[in-house]
Write a structure and sequence with these properties.
It is built from five helices and nine strands; from the N terminus they run βαβββαββαββααβ. A hairpin with a 2-residue loop joins β7 and β8. By secondary structure, it is α/β, with parallel strands linked by helices. The protein has one domain: Pyruvate-ferredoxin Oxidoreductase, domain 3, CATH 3.40.920.
């Protein structure tokens, strides 16, 4: 955490809803008392399946004045474990970073910093089980964000529900909250 600003990075693939996750995280944090929030999507020649990045900065103490992307996040979401093979993503993981990884399998930590916390949640499995899908595959943003809320305490399921109701309406929020609750209750620390 640099100067009271918490920096969060999202590594996903096109279609996995990582950009939407960065925006929703800012809204959840703001709803729960963070005074300044900023979501930074990185949109390039994006296509389904291509690696993408998004970033969020949140603060309760200071105004966010730096609008550039995050190079050494405090928290990093990994929507697809194969992204850990990409050097720029692997190199962005610093000592003390907390990783939230979408997986149901053991994580290869070889070459990662020693002082690292890693949490895993089977967001893909949860989405498939509840048919929480779009044409490109599972909608990973809500279960990943629920796991993050549980890990950090920055917001809870009630805050998520309130924001999701505003964003998507009651009918879509019901299914969103089913996957959110399951991810919230199943996230676990692995390192």
């Amino acid at each position: 955490m640099a100067n009271g600003i918490i920096e969060i990075s999202f590594a996903g693939r096109g279609g996995q809803t990582a950009v939407t996750a960065s925006q929703l995280l800012a809204k959840f944090a703001f709803e729960n008392g963070f005074t300044d929030v900023f979501a930074i999507p990185i949109i390039g020649a994006e296509r389904r399946g291509a690696p993408i990045s998004a970033f969020t900065k949140i603060s309760k103490e200071k105004q966010i004045k730096a609008y550039e992307s995050v190079s050494h996040p405090d928290y990093q979401f990994i929507f697809d474990t194969t992204l850990l093979e990409i050097p720029r993503i692997r190199e962005s993981i610093k000592e003390g970073t907390i990783l939230i990884v979408n997986t149901d399998k053991p994580i290869d930590t070889q070459g990662l910093p020693e002082n690292l916390k890693i949490y895993m949640v089977d967001a893909t499995g949860i989405c498939i089980e509840h048919k929480f899908m779009i044409s490109s595959g599972p909608i990973l943003n809500v279960p990943m964000l629920a796991a993050f809320g549980k890990i950090t305490g920055f917001y809870d399921l009630e805050t998520m529900k309130k924001v999701l109701m505003k964003e998507f309406g009651e009918s879509r929020t019901t299914l969103n909250m089913k996957v959110a609750k399951e991810a919230f209750n199943s996230v676990k620390e692995v390192k």
